């Protein structure tokens, strides 16, 4: 499975961006059924941290506390794409954002170690 992240950019505080993570390769939709697709971010000098995840088959979502009420994760099965809608952006949201997918069922959507497939990062910069 290959993951392609896009949608990053420069935005002022309070603005919005929508990130996309397109999956391709193999029989993607059935392959991903039951799996997790997540977004992580890494700011300079900091560890990669969990942002959001969605179970491809059920649509159950997980969000880190700092983005609840501002970010929404969703998927479009027909397009094999997961979206991260980011509203009311803050300067502390500035980071490189990565999408990732597990290689099977995982009970821990928050740990980057659970994810096997990673896309390239997309830079999000929020100016104050």
Features:
128 residues, mainly beta, 7-stranded mixed sheet, 4-stranded antiparallel sheet, 1 helix
By secondary-structure content and strand pairing, the structural class works out as mainly beta
Number of strands: 11
Q: N- to C-terminal separation?
A: 37 Å
Main sheet properties: 7 strands, mixed
The poorly predicted ranges are none
Tertiary shape? globular
Proportion of residues in β-strands: over 45%
Instruction: Please report the number of helical segments.
Output: 1
Order of helices and strands: EEEHEEEEEEEE
Question: How would you state the average pLDDT, rounded?
Answer: 92
Description:
- This protein has 128 residues and is mainly beta.
- The chain contains one helix and eleven strands.
- Strands 2, 4, 5, 6, 9, 10 and 11 form a seven-stranded mixed beta sheet that branches. Strands 1-3-8-7 form a four-stranded antiparallel beta sheet, with no helix packed on it.
- The longest helix is centred in the N-terminal third of the chain and has 5 residues.
- It is globular and about 40 Å long.
